Structures are given as structure tokens and as C-alpha cells.
Amino acid sequence: MDNLNILIVEGNLREENQSFTDGGIKTHTESLKDSISYFTNSLKLDVVNPSSDENVSNVVSNLKKYDGLIWGGSSLNIYNDTPEIRKQLDFMKECQKNIKNILAICWGMQVAVTVAGGEVKKSLNGPHRGIAHDIKINKNGSKHPLYKKKDKRFNTPAFNFDEVVTLPKGATLLSSNPINKVMGVHFNAGISNIWGIQYHPEITYQKMISLIHFRRDRLLEKKAFVDQSEIDNHVEIIEEEDKISNKDARMRELENWLEFINPT
Hints:
Blueprint: E1 5-9, H1 14-22, H2 28-39, E2 44-48, H3 56-60, E3 68-71, H4 83-98, E4 101-105, H5 107-115, E5 119-122, E6 128-129, E7 132-137, H6 139-142, E8 153-156, E9 159-160, E10 162-166, E11 172-176, E12 184-189, E13 192-197, H7 205-214, H8 216-221, H9 228-244, H10 247-250, H11 252-261
Parallel strand pairs: 1-2, 1-3, 3-4, 4-13
Antiparallel strand pairs: 5-10, 6-9, 7-8, 7-11, 11-12, 12-13
Helix pairs in contact: 4-5, 7-9
């Protein structure tokens, strides 16, 4: 993996990231960097925030230099159509014209799917609140490099209120669970080969627990939880999963993508 140039896209607004930092929680980009470092320290990593950075046009003019892009999570909802979201959609359009390999994680997948002609709506079956249970890899997924060495059924860290309801033309569904039909997908857009996942192999369960406590009032307002007692019970479920979770197995998708863009 020596000398590969990777662009990391931060999906959260600067203000949200500052609140993370103030609350003692790593940003999603920091978590992603930590996870990448578990596999290699040889990558050249750049970071851009399309919603908040002032130098985005300079990044766009140099997109062809990147061997891959990883677009992470966000607390945004793509159907809200704010200026900040439109900036991310515009940036993704440029990425799909210039970068061959994209790993689109959660929000990143929703942005990539939307730009490629798909559709995202609020999940009818409720949210994933720190964990996604019973993801099943289908026959196409079993043959796809995204899921090499991955258990055919698994639980994983996840936090999302929205879901992909229409896939881009020619997309291949790779995995599903009872909450979201689209948990793993592969499609091509522009010159990009895109692997999309509606969950977070790069984020630990402990961080998910921290996010639940950090977002407590917001989650209660959204009716993601009924009360504090339900939050406490749900956190216990995640803690039990964390006890039996294997780090290598949890992050297999990230490892597989890194290997895919630089086969040895």
C-alpha cells in the first residue's frame, strides 16, 4: 500500500465536529484514520470537508491524483436539500468523474447513490441506533470482494435514520437486514467503482455508545428511544455485543477495500 493517495471526505459540518471534540468524542474522520492505521501507515491521506472547507475547488482540480476515496458518515439527511448538502452532492459528482475507487460509508453511500440516480428516504422500519443486527450477505455479496472472509450473517456498528429506497441503474445489492434492505451495494458511476455500506466497520461500539449518550436529547426528540430506561437497556445490548465482537472481523470490509485498490 506504499505511496497510495487516499482522499477522506468528512460528511459532518464543522460545527458538528466541534461539538464532538468538545464532548470528548473523536470525529468520524479521526475514527477512520485510526482504523486505517490498524492495517497500514503507508498511505498518503488527505481530508476534505465539502460543506465547510473554503479550498474545495483546489481539491476538485486535483482529484485525479487519488487512488481511492473514502466518504464517511454524517448526521445530515440528504432529502433536506440545504446548501451544505448540495455542496456535498456537487463534490461527489466531481469525484465520480475523477476517482476510480470509492468506499462509501453510511452517509457517503447515500450521497453516492443519490448522485448516481438512486433515492434515499427516511427508513420506514426505524433507525439503527449504534448497532445493526442480522445483516445477511446474499449470493452476489458472497462472491464480491467487499465481503471476502466475512461471516455470511453478522452484527456491526451502525447509526442511521435513512435508507436507500431506489438503487442506481445497474447496481448490485450485496447485503440486507430487517431494518434496511440496502446494507451493502456495488455500482459504477462515471469512472468510479463504488462499494457502499449502510453501517460503520471503522467505528467502535464504544464510540457508538458515546454517541448515544451525546445525542440523548436529540434521540428522544426524534423518538428513537421512548425514555432513558430504553436507552440504558439498548446500551447494555451494545455492550454485550462489544464483548464478543472481533476487531478484525468487524473491520473486514475496510481491509478488503484497501487490499482491492492495491493488490499484492
